[in-house]
Amino acid sequence: MLPGGEYWRPTGGAATALPGRRAGPGVAAGLVAHVVVSGAWTCVLAAAARRRRLGAGGGAVAGLAIAALDLGIAARAYPAVRALPRGPQILDHVVFGAVTGALLDRPQRTDQGTTSTTSPGCSEL
User: Fold this and answer.
1) Which contacts (CB < 8 Å, 24+ apart) does range 114-118 have?
2) How many C-beta atoms lie closer than 10 Å to residue 76's C-beta?
3) Cα 62 to chain center, whole Å?
4) Could you report the per-residue pLDDT of 69-123, keeping only the tens digit for each?
5) Given Cys at both, which of 54, 82, 110, 125 links 101, Cβ 3.0 to 4.6 Å?
6) How far is 94 from 66, CA to CA, in rounded Å?
């Protein structure tokens, strides 16, 4: 069991996705896995936001799609992720998508001191 018990189960589950961590998940490895996965999904949402504004609503829908992929397909390979309660995990994905979509929708300052509503690319995040 990880320190902190139930609160760290999702972090430990994410850690099992890292090579060599299936049997020995840890909090630090789980945090690394979360940062990598969240960063990758942020890049995907940023690319989508370049074509179409997401906003919080569109981001929330994207979060549901990400949950379907993360929890429905990828979790098949990771029993520790599959064992987590679905409700909180889905809600976490929806909130991630909504916040990311809203942040990507913010006007960006340009060199001329004006603003642009074009979402930044992943390299600019």
Assistant:
1) 117/53, 118/50
2) 10
3) 10
4) 988 887 888 877 788 888 988 999 999 999 999 999 887 666 666 555 555 555 5
5) 54
6) 8
